[in-house]
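step=encode ok
step=design start
structure_in=
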């Protein structure tokens, strides 16, 4: 029997999973690491924390499984997107990475847009506006504010590409992750010479581009010693986390879509051709399927909102869950179910880190609207869950306007484990919502890419058809959908009414 490894480099930790070639999970391991927020709106991580976590979890799954490492045919990676890793000529990281949810680059993004020739021209080339989460604004920020680091920098990388460099000694970036940098000519799947020349970003700092299933190096002797992997084992390029999740959920053909509730929240649809929203409200990226594309809306604080709610209001439930040997989120779901639709007229805007899709406003902030003395924490947790889902509904409506939305949805991420939240999704979206029997979306997607790179599978779509099985879907309820609609309408209006006040608050 041959095996494959998927390494999922997330924001809170790295999870590595060993699968057999039929997609069955054999062993998994997770190692967490911190996120640093030295100032309001900043978010940083140590690149070597990612490498140590990958190294340790790879060793752990090999040890747990008892598999002979010589039977591991390949490895690939899924990674948090957009984070800037600058390395010197020896491949050493130059300080912390500015990661995807950092919002310090508002002025840098404005300057980047001006240099390219305006928002419209940038969207024509890169398929997306310059957003604070994206990589290019971070490059300009470091160049302006940390010139001593910029002077030493020789390579621009993304988080998972840094880990792959440690495994293989080779520089590469896949199309899916590269399309989230603002530096890729997305329709033509190549680095944009125009953007680089206009902004003064040297093209020789950008790594060679490959498709996600291409072999992007092989395990070095040093990496083999540190991880237990066999020397020379192929490492496929991998993909951005959401594109890898698409592979792991089978969203690899038109009419397929998924919604993720992880740290961030994502509505994601596959497309055979480039579909660009001229307003830039949602993202168009290259898919992890070679030659294909995706459209996705991203909310920055989905599961993050629920974690904030748990840590702020549900300390007693955390203790009770620990004593019961269960998950504190299960108890929170039970509390939320005791509150009615609309959470007794309490509405939450999930903009804890600013917001990306579809409002594109880094200065927006979280809001509990309608809070009164009658509300208890059951209403607060219900409002938080509803607010996160209103954000996804908002994005889905943009995709519907672009004619890339499906008639059914797959749910993945930590939030998808909650039947209560999945039913809420089905009712709001007014469509069936299913999950997959295998819940390791990004890690499984990475493993499938590894299998294609190693020659085990013919291509990505056929591998997905062979491996993935959907659960029985939860069906929408028409009455509940109608009950949610006025709250959703008010949810959208609240942001518009507070938009100017968010910007005033940011200046205080």
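sequence_out=
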């Amino acid at each position: 029997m041959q095996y494959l490894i998927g390494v999922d480099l997330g924001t809170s930790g790295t999870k590595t999973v060993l699968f057999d070639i039929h997609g069955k999970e054999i062993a998994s391991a997770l190692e967490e690491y911190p996120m640093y927020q030295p100032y309001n709106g900043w978010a940083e991580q140590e690149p070597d924390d990612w490498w140590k976590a990958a190294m340790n979890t790879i060793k752990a799954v090999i040890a747990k499984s008892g598999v002979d490492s010589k039977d591991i045919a390949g490895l690939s990676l899924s990674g948090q997107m957009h984070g800037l890793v600058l390395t010197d000529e020896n491949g050493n990281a130059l300080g912390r990475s500015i990661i995807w949810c950092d919002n310090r680059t508002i002025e840098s993004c404005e300057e980047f847009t001006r240099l390219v020739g305006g928002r419209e021209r940038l969207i024509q080339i890169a398929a997306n506006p310059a957003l604070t989460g994206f990589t290019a604004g971070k490059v300009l920020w470091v160049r302006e504010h940390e010139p001593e680091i910029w002077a030493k920098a020789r390579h621009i990388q993304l988080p998972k590409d840094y880990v792959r460099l440690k495994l293989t000694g080779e520089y590469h970036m896949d199309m899916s992750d590269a399309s989230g940098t603002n530096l890729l000519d997305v329709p033509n799947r190549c680095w944009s010479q125009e953007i680089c020349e206009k902004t003064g970003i040297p093209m020789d700092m950008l790594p060679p581009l490959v498709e996600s299933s291409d072999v992007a190096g092989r395990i070095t002797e040093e990496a083999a010693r540190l991880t237990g992997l066999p020397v020379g084992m192929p490492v496929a390029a991998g993909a951005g986390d959401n594109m890898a999740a698409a592979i792991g959920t089978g969203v690899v053909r038109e009419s397929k879509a998924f919604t993720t509730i992880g740290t961030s929240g994502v509505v994601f649809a596959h497309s055979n051709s480039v579909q660009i929203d001229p307003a830039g409200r949602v993202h168009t990226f290259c898919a992890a399927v070679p030659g294909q594309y995706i459209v996705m809306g991203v909310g920055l604080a989905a599961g993050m909102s629920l974690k904030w709610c748990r840590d702020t209001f549900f300390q007693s439930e955390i203790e009770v869950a620990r004593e019961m040997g269960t998950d504190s989120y299960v108890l929170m779901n039970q509390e939320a179910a005791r509150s009615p639709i609309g959470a007794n007229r309490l509405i939450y805007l999930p903009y804890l880190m600013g917001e990306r899709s579809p409002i594109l406003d880094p200065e927006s902030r979280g809001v509990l609207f309608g809070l009164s003395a009658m509300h208890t924490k059951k209403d607060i947790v219900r409002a938080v869950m509803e607010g996160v889902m209103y954000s996804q509904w908002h994005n889905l409506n943009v995709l519907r306007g672009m004619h890339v939305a499906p008639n059914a949805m797959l749910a993945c991420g930590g939030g998808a484990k909650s039947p209560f939240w999945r039913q809420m999704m089905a009712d709001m979206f007014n469509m069936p919502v299913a999950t997959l029997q295998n819940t390791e979306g990004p890690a499984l997607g990475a493993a499938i890419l590894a299998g294609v790179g190693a020659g085990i599978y013919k291509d990505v779509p056929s591998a997905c058809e062979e491996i993935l099985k959907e659960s029985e879907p939860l069906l929408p309820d028409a009455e509940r959908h109608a009950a949610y609609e006025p709250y959703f309408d008010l949810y959208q209006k609240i942001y518009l009414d507070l938009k100017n006040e968010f910007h005033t608050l940011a200046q205080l």
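step=design ok
step=annotate ok -> The longest strand covers residues 13-20.
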